[in-house]
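Folding Task

Wanted — backbone structure
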Amino acid sequence: MRLRLGKVSRIGTAAVIAGTLALASLPFPGSQVACASPALGSPLLRTPEPTVTLAFVGDILLNLTVGDLIARDGPTAPWEGVRNVLSRADFAIGNLECAVGTTGEPTPDKEWVFRADPQALEGLKWAGIDVVSLANNHALDYGPECLLETIDLLRQAGVEPAGAGANLSEALRPVILEKSGVRVGLLAVNMIYPTVSWGAGEDSPGLAIDDTWHMHTVRRVQELLPHVDVLAVYLHWGEERQEVPPDWTLRMAHALRNAGAHLVVGSHPHVLNGFDYDGINLTAYSLGNFVFTTRPEDPRLQIGAVLEVTVSKRGVESASVIPTRIVWGRTVVDESPETEEIFAWLSSLSSPWNTDVDHRGNILPALFSDMRRHWAQDTVTKLVRAGAIQGYPDGTFRPESTITKGEFAALFSRTVASPEEIESTPSPADFSLCDQSAWQYPYMAYLASTGLISGTDPSWDPLAPCSRLDALTVMRKHAAQTPGEPVILENLASFKDLSGLDAQALETASWAVGAGLLKGYEDGTLRLGGTVTRAEMAELIWRYIRNVWDER
């Protein structure tokens, strides 16, 4: 549920907007990296951290083609195709690439000057935009008087401006977005300006510019960081129509992240650039044009994106990109067959920073060389972040390899328990599945000591392949689903490979289908007794955590 902004208040030097506003290391012989772990229990089984969802968009121009559309069809016309996406976020943030109002005169000798009619802001707010950066090379196109009018009109419309003000103090003031106890600090900074006179003075209106090549902004990040949980910087930087960021933007992004910025989002190139995501901190070098005048001579200028980011007090939890397209002033979510090509293109642009964009638009750190654009990449990444998977020392995950019972034992144990719990749980006196020197021993012994498997059952040879039924039987016991429960025939009616299963196996299959753990194959089979790949097991365990454990 989206709560509309209640009010904008001033606390200290910040504008505060109140409103709407993870499997442990899978060990293998030779594994070289130790995994940090919580003191008690697996992080996957804890109460989830409160989160805030942010939607970032790129350049917004409410003049020219868009202005004509607004004059003809009303202020909501450019936004009708993207309102649903923007309004589902707790806060939506963009770059307003024009002045708004009726005052001022065009800046002399400036090739492109933009000023929108005040009614255009009705659509901005209607679409769900909460904050706009004015720290760009067009907010002062009609001079300081119109800049102040723009700021006033935005606030009247319920949209908070950032990166501009009546004086330097106001221009530098961060915006604080707060929901569910999570405080997000936002700084807006302009690196592209006709002259340094566009910067705000002690007693004169202007923009938040950085003419020190990042040192000033780094200091602001360091000063704000102790007062927020997540810090975002929205920058006007880069080079127009260039898909590859210039070196100076890379240096600035690196400096800001080192200073503590969790999110760095760029505008100005007017085309999409790549992403740099390490699992905690994210840089989006350019989100392209969002609502903008139509430029058919270069199709790239018609493609933009909504960057959806979920953050918690730990940093960036997840990020995804939703492609958009401008069609004669109207911006729509791109649902064409070309979307897959856009994701592949963005993945290629992101590869220099070991970041991938999968076929669903998820932005993921490229943790394993053999997982790029793999169907299970998102799930594996989440489990790595939670500390349950590391893979092999050669940098691979080997997703298509058959998982053994020993590997499953390690994977599931580290999903449901901390390393301390695993190590401190005594093994059964009659445990005989493997020698204490085997790497699988603590995990097999933990499952046996907690009653999830038998410590003397030779079928649980740690080197033997693990079937779906083997894994599901363990999960069912862990979920405290006891044998003897009725089989819900409706759950199994569509599957044709269940003959020969005993009553307990049928109960397990019925439970798994009912819980959404199994969906079956296109040929109408469940393949309970078949081997399972490492990627398939990761997906199965993730479904167990989300569909069963989280619902308890």
User: Anything to note?
Assistant: Residues 143-157 form the longest helix (15 residues). The domain at 50-371 is CATH 3.60.21.10 (Purple Acid Phosphatase; chain A, domain 2). Residues 192 and 237 are 6 Å apart (CA to CA).
